[in-house]
Task: structure prediction
Amino acid sequence: MRRHNRTTLLRLLHVTGPCTRATLAAELGLNRSTIKTLVDGLAEAGVVEEKVPRPGRGAGRPSLLVLPQPQAAVVLAVDLQVEHVAIALVGLGGQILGRNSWNLRGRMREADEVITHIIESAAMLAGDLGVQPTAVGVSVPGVVRRADGHVHEAPNLRWTDVALGERLNSVMRIPILVGNDAELGAVAEHLRGVARGASDAVYVSADVGVGGGVISDGSSLRGAAGYVGEIGHMVIRPDGRPCYCGNIGCWETEVGEAALCRALGLAEDTPRGAILVELRELAGDPQAAWERLSEFAEWLTLGLVNVVNLLGPQLLVLGDLLTVLPASVLERVGGEIRRRSLVSRAVGGTRLVSSVLGADVKLLGAAEVAFEQVLDTV
Amino acid sequence: MRRHNRTTLLRLLHVTGPCTRATLAAELGLNRSTIKTLVDGLAEAGVVEEKVPRPGRGAGRPSLLVLPQPQAAVVLAVDLQVEHVAIALVGLGGQILGRNSWNLRGRMREADEVITHIIESAAMLAGDLGVQPTAVGVSVPGVVRRADGHVHEAPNLRWTDVALGERLNSVMRIPILVGNDAELGAVAEHLRGVARGASDAVYVSADVGVGGGVISDGSSLRGAAGYVGEIGHMVIRPDGRPCYCGNIGCWETEVGEAALCRALGLAEDTPRGAILVELRELAGDPQAAWERLSEFAEWLTLGLVNVVNLLGPQLLVLGDLLTVLPASVLERVGGEIRRRSLVSRAVGGTRLVSSVLGADVKLLGAAEVAFEQVLDTV
Result:
């Protein structure tokens, strides 16, 4: 029981940051003396510290703040993308203590190379910072099985059946948690971003591929064998373009990076930087933005209407490239979803917002699934 | 604790039927003396009875069977359909003790009429059988809020914003649980039908409308405010037919009853009986069946591929009209889903099967959500 309360308190501090003892007592529904015992124990173990906050305007003695100590629990987060890999050591409280990243080209993208490089870089980073991670979270753009970190298919990396979890574990000897990138984006936005407090939310990201992560009744939604869904491979335009997955007209073919390039009149392999420049220019001219992007927006709307009609979220969070669409376009898309989705009308209007965690969103999500494994052992 | 064990034991008996004490002990992980105390208590209260089973071939003294007593807990189940209403009183163990039904035409379909008729018929049925229901489950073909039984929209009934739960409760004064019909179909198949034991399954039914119910990690999936998804309003053919919901090319417009009539070359308002006759004739001639139904089957496949790619179930259960499609057609659809869905390939091949609970499926689902409320008070 005490162990359980300790873990719950630690999770609260980890996710919400420094709190007073009174807040901890109120949030956890425990009495003050129980909180005192727990906090004293954690402080003695060096997991938290109590500090006088900077004085505010109010009168009276300020309450002590309980602060999680980042070094008390450290995890390794890995964000494996199609073009590059980022790794970070993340401390208790969610602070990034240090990071490293490298590009993937040619042979560097092969599973053997990637795995070796992750292990070596992580060891160097941990050595530099003088910390030791106790679990690893890995974000992969593909179809992964949560139970053992098996990558079934990561098409844009050209990976098939890679025992990623097992292979990292055989060297690092700590728990390895592998998740689909969009699922981890959803986790991060739910815990630390714009979907905080939402019980039902869907995070949709468009990069080279299009993926989605679903928070249902406060938790990640997964299907059989722990595989998460592949929203990007919802067929939405059966007379459209062939997709590598074998279908024709997957949503990914209409709202992925290549489709956005086509909508903007750019070559499909335009570098990311040039796409962003083009989008930022359009942002200043709503009329021009709509002329260029209305068809793209229509496919985005249709897919999101389907997502809402199937899953009934109160919140849709857009990630990656979708966050840089002109605000005027996103506003119209949001309005159309509310107008056209039966289920959105029932739940009182699904809101459409952009991810707020930026480029670190998947790294932070990967860190969280790793922390999930270690908080009860701190 | 004892109350909790009692409810768990009762739920097991309710769902799986008569068991020996040894089976109960094994299934619940309780020791034999605890089981004895619980069963003795339930027997004394008349909730279960212990009986010697008919002798089998084995030697030795047969174990006593613990049987749930149907009259010990009775709920009212209501299956509200577009053309008619069925009600039943269902006893502990899931046995239908008595039933009644009537057609809906013209004014009879208005909410006031339907509600009055349900209340009167239920009272008469209960009087005839000499039992008293302690909760009500209602299946509605529409968008309903589980929390208070509010019907937001039931388009084929032309109902909008009907406080169904509240209105039934104001007269009947017992808990009223209102669910979407496809959700309750999923519940019934999961507890008593072909999806028993499946952790992740989707039930899809096509009648006038097309709906779906999702079992995720063993429980019903719902979105914000308790609304379930509306799979039938997934847009799948954006250049297709207008749907009453405001979209164009909803799945319902391609695999609902009207679409099936078109595929068979029948008028869209062909009576159900005539559709069934046509389908049964086709069943004997797989080649003719495929010629007539291949386009219908393609839309069915596309929608099911999307459902699998979004939700990753291990099992798809077809209900209503879809169960009478020729077996040769369903076999091809199943094969195509496994071939074309990325996620089906990952989970090791989603199986496509037909509902086995027949016309009572939604009635049984409605009974179960009502039992869910009362088993701990028996």
About this structure: Residues 286-311 of chain A form the longest helix (26 residues). The longest strand of chain A covers residues 95-103. Chain A has three domains: 2-68, 73-183+361-377, 196-356. Chain A touches chain B through 49 residues (CB under 8 Å).
